[in-house]
Predict the structure.
Amino acid sequence: MLNVGRLRVLCEVVAQGSFSAAAEELSYTQSAVSQAIARLEAETGSTLVVRDRGAVRPTAAGATLVEHAEAIFAQIEAAETDLDAVLGVRGGRLRMASFPSAGATLMPLAIATFRERHPDVALTLAEGEPEEIAPRLRAGEFDLALLFEFPGARERPGAGLRTVKLLDDPMHVALPAEHPLAGKPALTLPDLREEDWVQTSASSPCARHVVRSCLAAGFEPNVTFESDDYETVQGLVAAGVGVALIPRLALTRVRPEIVVRELAPRSPARKVVAATIAAPGTAPAATTMMRILADVAQRYSEPPEATARDEATITNHAFA
């Protein structure tokens, strides 16, 4: 295999027209340059340069090798530039995924902030539920993903990944505006035992957590309608067909026909995390985006005073 270092010496000798000038340009001794050319000629089995009227010029074989060597050096330089850009968050790409409610709240502002600071990094975003995107993150399809987990649940999409907690996302109760319980002080989950419920599909993590929470409160919810679109869930609640537990991140727009209430003493909550592969070599762009997401998440974190209240009526609140 041809030695790249010796190829560089050959290119410099041809460019300078002499061994001594090439040695000076490369900060080599003239002897080292002569030895490099001799070894390269031995490797190729051909004469690569000849003296002509006091100057050094390439033979046909030498000229051919110089042409290819220059192309090789250009490729190496491009590779080094790309690598430096990725490692320095000055280029490359960042492939991200998010569950829908975080994709509609945390991600847009984080992406806008990242692009403003690092415009040469190409960003992509895919959407899916944690149980779908976590395996793809582990498989290397994504560099970063937003996931959520529930305390006490067996399902932990972030297991085996490097995660950074962004916020706790409480699930508040949505009721029709005219519901008799809409104005009840200190509304609790057992107060809703006789209600019909609207929730996400039974197999979803959120639905399973709603059922776990209700069972812990002493009853099994009577689920009458299911939808994985929280806008649809709000519409069904507004129509008076049931009540629902909806994550705060999915309540940036609240229909005027419903009332959103915190539960006493505390609403059930899911933990939202940013995750990357738990291995050396995490792209600096992913680390940078995680810091930006942590800053953005503060805008959606529940105010401390809200967690201390036993009662609160949150009507038409943007949670922003």
